[in-house]
Request: fold
Amino acid sequence: MSIPRLLVVDDDEDMRDMMAQYLRNNGFIVLPAASEAEILDHLHAGRIDLILLDVMLGQESGIEICKGLRQDQDVPIILVSALSADHQRMAGYEVGADDYIAKPFNPALLLARIQAVLRRVRRSPSLNYRRSTSRYDFAGWSYDGRKDEVLSPDGVQVALSQRETRLLKVLLASPRIPLTRDEIAAAMDITQDGEQGPEASGRAIDMLVGRLRSKIETNPKAPQMLKTERGVGYVFAVDVTESRT
Reply:
């Protein structure tokens, strides 16, 4: 599995650096941010697995930032704040926060809460993408999540099996991000299809990738979209545009 990438958002540089160093020492990749603009820059630049978001960011409100992110982002968000009254916590949960931690906090508690949220998210990715009603456009192709329909650049509907569609959805959710076979299998919840163990699920992913390539690649032997990432697994190597249908 890949190392989780956390975004630590706090306008207090000392606090931000302290949290970042502690989390790096505990095995995470940590990226710093101090404003909504920096958050969006990081989200557009690559994969973020969880955001630690301070509620009071100078002139900006972490509550409002969380509310805005929830309009088109499913990334887990933990709010961090010196405001700990019940109504303040509820305000955070109401805008879509996954957890709310009051300052001052024990770093070990923060670590435990982060790990708990990440475990919860890993158990439910397949549910997340199955609920998607978005439209995805990529390299002239499109996938309509509401109709469960794939159209080629020529406007021809391409029939995919349920498994092939599940794989495509996982790839569309993580464009240009190398994914291991284990990560793909976990997101697809491939064990529901009877595959047991990493070797079995890995072989199943390889076969499934081959079948999907045969349907969406001009030359499946020299794929331009679903590429093999040496030493990792696979990467969907094209830009993807998502819009709500």
